[in-house]
Known about the structure:
Number of domains of chain A: 2
CATH class of the largest domain in chain A: Alpha Beta
Helix content of chain A: 25-40%
CATH topology of the largest domain in chain A: Rossmann fold
Oligomer: homodimer
Amino acid sequence: MASMMFTDCSSSTTSRLFHLNRRNGTSLLRQCVGQLRFQTTASGRGCIRSSSSPISAISVILVGDRKDSATYVRNKKKACDSVGIKSFEVCVAEDSSEEEVLRSVSGFNDDPSVHGILVQLPLPSHMDEQNILNAVSIEKDVDGFHPLNIGRLAMRGREPLFVPCTPKGCIELLHRYNIGIKGKRAVVIGRSNIVGMPAALLLQREDATVTIIHSRTKNPEEITREADIIISAVGQANMVRGSWIKPGAVIIDVGINPVEDSSAARGYRLVGDICYEEASKVASAITPVPGGVGPMTIAMLLSNTLKSAKRIHNFQ
Amino acid sequence: MASMMFTDCSSSTTSRLFHLNRRNGTSLLRQCVGQLRFQTTASGRGCIRSSSSPISAISVILVGDRKDSATYVRNKKKACDSVGIKSFEVCVAEDSSEEEVLRSVSGFNDDPSVHGILVQLPLPSHMDEQNILNAVSIEKDVDGFHPLNIGRLAMRGREPLFVPCTPKGCIELLHRYNIGIKGKRAVVIGRSNIVGMPAALLLQREDATVTIIHSRTKNPEEITREADIIISAVGQANMVRGSWIKPGAVIIDVGINPVEDSSAARGYRLVGDICYEEASKVASAITPVPGGVGPMTIAMLLSNTLKSAKRIHNFQ
């Protein structure tokens, strides 16, 4: 049985984003966003005020009327409010032109009161996602998706201005729980630009020996069983079974997959890529789904925005 | 015994850069630079003329008077001459300022007759290598070291303008000898910005399952033994022994390490990271040192310069 579980103990991710319990009842709670709030509102630090005139601000560009995108944007806005980061939102109609979105990006690039720019994905199919993401100033790319940031992340001796939020949150979880990375065998399942690839680069920067597993890997079970640390971001419900896990491994499950559940109010429930019931009997630590990595993504977005504001205001 | 060996059969890498022999004597020779020369000088293609007015040109900036750097630059110049690529060379004194080097870079960036810019490394310690490499226009970065190129290399769905020459040469060797990469287990030993890291990214783009081994890896022998393809670029003479190799594996040895040898005219000889004598008895294919990967690096530099000239001249 996993001796440590990363659990969201709150129904409101904006009030208590992150919690850890041990089975023995000893709480090792360190609330990431709570800490961030302390850091950002403490008058002695003075870098951000939770007042009506915050000096850190993020702009979100939402194109179209997808309900899921609107929900994500609303959650980000709530989280910003909770730590005193001002958020602007620009809604662009589904049938707008790419140029209109680019104009919004350009306006925020030029606006010195904006420290972070988020373009909510996915974009309508008639728009070129690359063009639009590339247009975001690298100094305000709080999502960390700009290829220049990814290049710096990949290179030894270089530092990205921002690290993509979800993989940054995964590593932060390991740090917060004092789980050593250096010299460990790590397996990342999935090689997306948003999670898998940057997570592998981050693990390698911390001196893990990393293998990335993907759809063309012939023996994923065997390779995963060698890992001390597993980060899965593949989007397949319960793909990783207990038999794939080395006893004592640490598991970070990024997958959020809906599965039918007639007993649930909405007719479905959310599960991860890892079969939690089986894996938690073998692993030493595991994140639940939902409530594990998800809240960390938003926390890291706030952290990136804070970092950007501090850089722009030349605040150490 | 390796059934296939990548062997340089010529003492002059500028005349015959690359050769393959099978032990059974069947030559599968395909001279990479020979092919490139054909491709670039064939009047029907017309993209480069091996005349006095070539339309492809590379500029090399050599700072200081290191003998090894001067030799590398001379070899590159010879290779350019052999395929009709014009090469300019700017020599900057060892005690010059960083600004002087940056001025040279800037001049070549602005010169439409220059399609590739090379800054020969290493630079004197009083210069910031990052600053200078970052100043090279990404459209003329034929070394492929710009973080924007590396970022695009790392990202799915993005294309780098240029791929670093040595790892590109490693992959080209595998392609030329019809060695499949997709679905194979690959181990890259070493994680340098110049070879190991981009080699791993390239293997992954070709759907290998890649593990990078480095100085903090606890059991490199065991992990290497799982590999179908090994690329080593760690700079330690004969580090990888025969016992590390899975029977039938394919080995690309990028290391070039001098070891004392009183029987050699210069008192030393060059060996790779792989113990060739042992590994060649287990592997199915192996590159020798010298004469394996080295000539490919120069060939890929020419290939990158050709690609740049074609892009700038809008030649398909």
